Amino acid sequence: NAGVTQTPKFQVLKTGQSMTLQCAxxxxxxxxxxxxxxxxxGLRLIHYSxxxxxxxxxxxxxxxxxxxxxxxxxxxxxxxxxxxxTSVYFCASSSxxxxxSPLHFGNGTRLTVT
Amino acid sequence: DAKTTQPNSxxxxxxxxxxxPCNHSTISGTDYIHWYRQLPSQGPEYVIHGLTSNVNxxxxxxxxxxxxxxxxxxxxxxxxxxxxxxxxxxxxxxxxYDKVIFGPGTSLSVIP
Lengths: 114, 112
Hints:
The structure holds two protein chains of two kinds.
Chain A: E1 4-7, E2 10-13, E3 19-25, E4 31-37, E5 43-51, E6 54-57, E7 64-66, E8 76-78, E9 87-94, E10 104-105, E11 109-113
Parallel strand pairs in A: 2-11
Antiparallel strand pairs in A: 1-3, 3-8, 4-5, 4-9, 5-6, 7-8, 9-10, 9-11
Chain B: E1 9-13, E2 18-23, E3 32-38, E4 45-50, E5 55-56, E6 61-64, E7 70-75, E8 84-91, E9 106-111
Parallel strand pairs in B: 1-9
Antiparallel strand pairs in B: 2-7, 3-4, 3-8, 5-6, 6-7, 8-9
């Protein structure tokens, strides 16, 4: 069972560069989301999607774009990387948006912006 | 939105039970209480959830106070692999970003 797969595991970018963090799930989950985790800040929600073609902003969406063209994939795009985007990024999914539906997380992408 | 209070850190001896408390005094009647844990260098992992009744699964037990303002995650015999940050999350919906909030959690250390 692959679950939630994130690529790459590590990435170093220069300020101003763009890149896409990939997230794929093989569980046919309806809901997918992106979090960033910074020391002492817990996890903060960036964007989420409740189904293919539907996305919405979370708590910290600035500097990030998302799209959801298929149920399986939910890529996160950094259009012009900034040092403030240095963080660990986690993708999560759940079968539905129901409150008793647990989140399944990937193992993260560690991004450094110099 | 329900807010939580958890101890910053706890210690346990290996093979002893661990009780991890969480206060969520502003929880609403339909908020499920979820617990996740995060091992070093990994993503959070679902542990257990419940609404009103106590719950058991292969990983842990969840004891929910009668007034639902607090809950306790119980690890029956701590192992070294249980050393992690434990998050208590009361939430209703995932369609509003402020409903699923991962706070700092409790960092559990297990002493051999």
